[in-house]
């Protein structure tokens, strides 16, 4: 079987900037060889794909040759290889060299353009690289891609006289040298310019000023971080066109305490508004003690008058079992459905099923009252599909009202280890005051997060930051542990929680 190589431009940092074609090839690849700066894109690789970090741009011809041979070797095994390159693979990068090597090895390849760092950084900083009256040239100057300190080998006299915009990726010392070379060859010291650090990420920051002012800033010993340097009249437009770093939650570091499969919706919405999200690894799913119980329940589902789904994952587990067995969706025709929680409701709707009864939170009295309002429970057969951490209380309460209950544990959860590197990192960030908010979407999340960072320290650490709770039940669970909640969402939805966070930080 013939292998194939895709040289894919990953863009300047924001994983959302990869092209549709690049994403298609990445999601299909057997092997992903990626630049360290493109690691965030691995979320879209196949779970069984082999992933290999190429590190920083290869230093020297020997390292680059070894990397090219690795790409070719993987393809010769008959595998599809995605080579993820920071920025654009054909702009100041070794993508051309890697593509030429696989061509010489007679290996089929494809090149997918990416947004170059110069283009992405300037757009996210609110600086157009061209504008009427700002000159007719855009010069992309090789900088730190080649050397962290040395100056590019160009005609500085000619470059200084160009009427237009110059863009270069630089380190601190190198940036100061570039500015000095331009000014000493005739570029005006008062020319507007900007330095864009960690471009297109939620940690982006931009320093604007004249060439003289930026040279002084870059000369500081601590100013060694890589940045995109934009020089030209267009830099003066930033105050009018900046959009990325003025979003309502820009730069806020917010911890999300949800399971990974449910955290994405909240993460995406917070990141859209500029926040930097940190997903806390609260637990992982493990099979139920009787993994075949759900198959038996699905096969005889029409013996019930009600199904109560207690979590979104319970929905997924049940419908997977139903469709894998002898029955299908028609077996639900005469059954009423109760969904607990907004994500459970959404997961059902994604399956084409609307809940007859929707309850926003796990509160036994509210659930029983809602079911009773839909008709008598006496003599009704009720199937509860739940995770292990929601206890048997609901089954007991429904049985007390005359129902015959099958209490099905669809899956169990194993707590994340407080010793894991992720848990230790979250603990350290809270201790150092580098977290702006922690969100809790359920009482279970409060308890599990306390277990993760240490029950004794939980209240002390969380009371140093903003705590946001999704609803009064979650707020009550937090306060029972001595945790003060600064924000309580008015309704039990992600949008409400996000809106409450925006309103809170707008007051500051």
Task: Tell me what the structure shows.
It is a single chain. This protein is an alpha/beta fold. The chain folds into 4 domains: 4-115, Tetrapyrrole methylase, N-terminal domain (Cobalt-precorrin-4 Transmethylase, domain 1); 118-246, Methyltransferase, Cobalt-precorrin-4 Transmethylase, Domain 2 (2-Layer Sandwich), CATH 3.30.950.10; 253-282 and 416-506, 3-Layer(aba) Sandwich (Rossmann fold); 286-412, 3-Layer(aba) Sandwich (Rossmann fold), CATH 3.40.50. 37% of the residues lie in helices and 22% in strands. The strands form 4 sheets. Strands 13-18-17-14-15-16 form a 6-stranded mixed beta sheet, with helices on both faces. A 5-stranded parallel beta sheet has the order 3-2-4-1-5, with helices on both faces. Helix 16 packs across helix 17 (455-462).
Q: State the helical fraction.
A: 25-40%
CATH class of the largest domain: Alpha Beta
Annotated CATH architecture of the largest domain: 2-Layer Sandwich
Tell how many strands the DSSP assignment holds.
Answer: 21
Determine the structural class based on helices, strands and strand pairing: alpha/beta
Return the CATH topology of the largest domain. Methyltransferase, Cobalt-precorrin-4 Transmethylase, Domain 2
* Strand order of the biggest β-sheet: 13-18-17-14-15-16
Termini separation (Å)? 61 Å
Strand content: 15-25%
Provide the number of structural domains: 4
